[in-house]
Design a protein that fits this description.
- The protein contains 3 helices and 12 strands.
- It is an alpha+beta fold.
- α1 runs antiparallel to α2.
- The C terminus is likely disordered.
- Among the domains are: about 140 residues, Secreted effector protein pipB2 fold (2-Layer Sandwich); about 55 residues, Roll (Nuclear Transport Factor 2, Chain: A).
- The chain is about 25% helix and about 35% strand.
- This is Transcriptional activator protein Pur-beta isoform X3.
- It comes from Thrips palmi.
- Belongs to the PUR DNA-binding protein family.
- One of its GO terms (cellular component) is nucleus.
Length: about 325
């Protein structure tokens, strides 16, 4: 009988600020638990229709990494969860095609790491970065940074979503892989990709460009995005000192549109009724001021002659 899988710590609540500016410990990691999972549609709801196809667990130094291949109605993806020795948890999501790119970058980073000499504090870069790359997948940016600090070398992988209202990328989710474990991580990822391929499935076309409209002193932004739960629309209302947003999953767009159109029709009908009533009142006013002699209808026309005795006697 297979041993029971270690239980995972409960999920942390997402926070809306950039992890680049958080206080960090000596491992260049946040001093407290934060979990950004980029799961806008249906946040806080059960992930209906999501199926786990395979999983791998890696123990790299004091950390555990879970690589889960999942599938929902939009396709397949890999969730990478990092569990630190003290129970802190973070995770990122990779489309299968992005995971294939990441695997190739892991080979490149591993070769570069192998070419490095022993750490030298005197020649350490000020920001600790030894090598950096970036991957782009639709509205997501993945930043790969091989870094060095007083405790060693590691690969930091962070993901940020980009929209019209978050030009700097918004909050980031991230994991940190000890440099000595990059080959092991790459091999585990390769095994999963060999089994499930690199085809994401689901939506194949290009996502529509964002739209913007201004109403009085407000700006409204419409951004289309995609994550592990599918495609969604984020509608943001922005003023000089205020910003709020809602997220609508694609499966709800038609219903959202129907409700909005229904209100538009009702307001149009109401305005038409009010306009019709006003027009009738004006006609009544004109009728009440009509001169009965001056405005008397002419008897010409259908009878074919002037009204001076052209009719029968």
């Amino acid at each position: 009988m297979a041993p029971a899988r270690p239980s995972r710590p409960p999920r942390a609540r997402p926070y809306d600020f950039d992890m680049e500016h958080l206080p960090r410990n000596n491992n260049d990691e946040p001093n407290f638990l934060i979990d950004f999972d980029d799961s806008d549609p249906g946040e806080g709801q059960n992930q209906q229709g999501e199926q786990e196809l395979a999983t791998k667990m890696l123990q790299i130094q004091s950390k555990r990494f879970y690589l889960d291949v999942k599938q929902n109605r939009r396709g397949r993806f890999i969730k990478v969860a990092e569990i630190s020795a003290d129970g802190r948890r973070s995770q990122i999501f990779l489309a299968l095609s992005t995971a294939a790119d990441f695997r190739d970058h892991l080979s490149s980073f591993s070769d570069y790491y192998a070419s490095l000499g022993p750490p030298n504090p005197e020649s350490m870069p000020e920001d600790g970065k030894l090598k950096s790359e970036m991957m782009i997948k639709e509205n997501r940016r993945y930043y790969l940074d091989l870094k060095e600090n007083s405790r060693g070398r590691f690969l930091r992988v962070s993901c940020a979503q980009v929209s019209q209202t978050m030009v700097r990328g918004g909050p980031r989710s991230q994991i940190a892989i000890p440099a000595q474990g990059m080959i092991e991580f790459r091999d585990a990822l390769t095994d999963l990709l060999d089994e499930f391929g690199t085809d994401d499935g689901g939506f194949k076309g290009e996502l529509p460009e964002g739209r913007h409209m201004r109403v009085e002193n407000k700006n409204f932004y419409f951004d289309i995005g995609q994550n592990n739960r599918g495609i969604y629309m984020r509608i943001s209302e922005v003023k000089s000192n205020f910003r709020t947003a809602i997220t609508v999953p694609e499966k709800s767009w038609a219903r959202f549109r129907d409700i909005f159109a229904d209100y538009c029709d009702k307001m149009k009908d109401g305005n038409a009724s009010a306009s019709g009533g006003s027009s009738g009142d004006k006609d009544a006013v004109r009728d009440s001021t009509r001169d009965p002699v001056r405005d008397r209808p002419s008897s010409s026309g259908a009878d074919g002659g002037p009204g001076t005795g052209s009719g029968p006697k």
